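Worked example
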Amino acid sequence: MKKLLVILFVVLALSLCGVLVACGEPNDSTGGNDDDTLLQFSGITFEDGTFVNTGAEHSIEVQGTLPQGTTVSYVGNHQTQTGVYNVTATVQNEKYQTLVLQAKLYIYDLADILQAMHEALAMPQPWSYLPESLYEQSLVYDSLPSTDFTTNVSVGNIGKTFIGVQLNVVYELMQGVQSALNMSNVVFAAADTIATTYQAFVNSNPNLEEAFEGEITLLGVKFSALMKMDGTVFTLLAGNGTVNVELQADIDSGTREGRIQVTDGVVLKYAATDNSLQLAVQTTVGGVGYVRQVLFTRDSQSGDVAGHLYEFMGVGTTGLKTSALIYSNSQYTYITANKRESDDLIINAYQEVYRSSDGRFVGAEVAETVELVDFDTIWVPLYDISGIDSIKVIVDEKEGELVYVNGSSEQFVAAKGLNLSRKYDIELKQVYYVTAVQDGDNVTYQRQQAYIPMMFVQKKFISSFTDDVNGKNSYINATLPLTTFITQYFESNMDTYLQLKEVVTRDEVLAFIGQANSFFD
């Protein structure tokens, strides 16, 4: 009986071995280990490598401690020509699972590196997204146009190029941005010195994984600096305790970034391409914090520009002080904002229109609420209205503005519409003329506030304007110019403005500005 049990046990064990396939030696024709039993490599890395082309062979290698008996083979390595190469490293060991790693081998001509450096050192130009005709220097008057209308003035003496209240929002923001940029001009202006310094370093250190780190003198000012080419990105860090500058340029994408921090509390950050710019500034003035951001994009085909500007005021608040929307094409530039000229107006959107070729003010449209009544009003400069040759405005403390047209002694009369509102009228509008101040070789531009007479017409009464004006003022034969250029984009621009004006928060802008690089600690 015992003998029979032993035999049955042996048969059962052999059967189980057959089911499990392996009893003792693995069932592997190569005699190797099953994948589940092989070890995994650890601590093995394969990083990109960046070199300058010297004519010698360049390669990259896996890093880490390799177990005994490990072999590494490469595909695409050991290159001598300028280019970007995909390199594969295969790490093998009979006791380990095969490890396949990939990295890039970058080999640059020195000229390419210096070009990336000059791109990084190109100061962003926010003004370039506006027509040149609207630059301050293009609007300068040697002598101011008529600003006193208490006596009869020819409408031809009213200035045709000026800054309206909405465009002034853009100017104030742009000037704050430009001022912050100018604080770091010592670095931007010393591009040749920086390039020469880095070129000398690269000549003796063709392995660009090595970074230049040391002291450089830029326009007589000493800076601690770090320069490095990492893959496709060139980085420059330069600081001296007064200003810290971080600049980058990516050869492949064409993007440029910069962060500038000045010890008096000014911080600026930007990200730019050939056709886009995001630029933000944080400042403190009189204990009050300001955060500003400009966003511009340019259509590479048409050249049309779209922009949005934001300004936040206050410490620890997300409140929006003001914003503006810009759309500019080869014919006209549209500035949409909600800057108030009077505290009793609730303005949804106020759009000013300028001719892109010469900066001439074309007109404006405003959607506003006055005493709970909504209005859509067109503003037209008097110099574009035929039949009005001269203007006189006397401001009376009790009766307000008394207007006289074409030398008449009769006061200009406005026709009443719904809700006793005026269908049209002439009022003084706030504008700014630009003058230049020369101080040696330095020129600064100042805005001189002025008030000029302008015609407003409720949009729904445009078609009856001539009959309405001439019917109330028999000595006038007034005709409006074509107002299509004023109105054609108003609805779409207002909708876009209202949607976007509070999309960006103060905290988001501060997050974009970020913190200084640890190099400056």
Summary: The first strand starts at residue 49 and ends at 52. Residues 1-32 have pLDDT under 50 and may be disordered.
